[in-house]
Amino acid sequence: MKRALKGNYPNPFNPETNIAFALPEAGNVSLNIYNITGQLVWSHSSWYGAGEHEITWHGKNTFGEDVASGIYFCQLNFGEKSATNKMVLLK
């Protein structure tokens, strides 16, 4: 997925960051956030049209609890392709 995941801003961030991506065509997108140990801490899945999009991650896990400062990885999945970006949460 060439340049589909454009990264996040701000990076480092506190308390939230915007994850920008572009799709060549409409389809289902899943966005997963993992901590440094590889544990899934948050996920989002939805249908998006072709074009530029953003998802805001508020630095919380799937239970709505604040996550700790540290390095996180954002993985964008679209069709059979995926892209990963490193993010830093500083409190």
Describe this structure in words.
It is a single chain. By secondary structure, the chain is mostly beta strands. It has one domain: Immunoglobulin-like (Sandwich), CATH 2.60.40.4070. Helices cover 0% and strands 60% of the residues. The strands form 2 sheets. The protein has a 4-stranded antiparallel β-sheet, with no helix packed on it. β3 and β4 form a beta hairpin. It is globular and about 35 Å long. The termini are far apart. The mean pLDDT is 95.
Helix/strand layout:
Layout: E1 5-9, E2 17-23, E3 27-35, E4 40-48, E5 51-57, E6 70-78, E7 81-89
Antiparallel strand pairs: 1-2, 2-5, 3-4, 3-6, 6-7
Keywords for this entry:
Immunoglobulin-like, 91 residues, single chain, mainly beta, 7 strands
